[in-house]
């Protein structure tokens, strides 16, 4: 199944036992139009989730550097 539309119910988060939020995500099938839902925590990890942001030389490393 390939979703053609996805939307998230952000008004009603559910809190897990370790105090993390998860939402219902709704999907509409591109072939037959049926709709299904899943928890946001059920998605596989994103390829962008573990990226490291490179340090910037032009940005102060602490507030002490500003004064």
Name the features:
67 residues, three-stranded antiparallel β-sheet
What does this structure look like?
- This protein is an all-beta fold and 67 residues long.
- Helix content is 0%, strand content 40%.
- It has no helices and 3 strands.
- It has strands spanning 3-15, 21-29, 35-39.
- It has a 3-stranded antiparallel beta sheet with strand order 1-2-3, with no helix packed on it.
- Strand 2 and strand 3 form a beta hairpin.
- Cα gyration radius (Å): 19 Å
Please, how many helices? Answer: 0
What is the strand arrangement across the widest sheet?
1-2-3
Secondary structural class: mainly beta
In terms of quaternary structure, what is this? single chain
Largest sheet: 3 strands, antiparallel
Order of helices and strands: EEE
Number of E-type strands: 3
| Unreliable segments of 5+ consecutive residues | none
> What fraction, in percent, of the residue positions are helical?
under 10%
Task: Outline the secondary-structure elements.
Blueprint: E1 3-15, E2 21-29, E3 35-39
Antiparallel strand pairs: 1-2, 2-3
Give a short synopsis of this structure.
This protein is mainly β and 67 residues long. It is built from no helices and 3 strands.
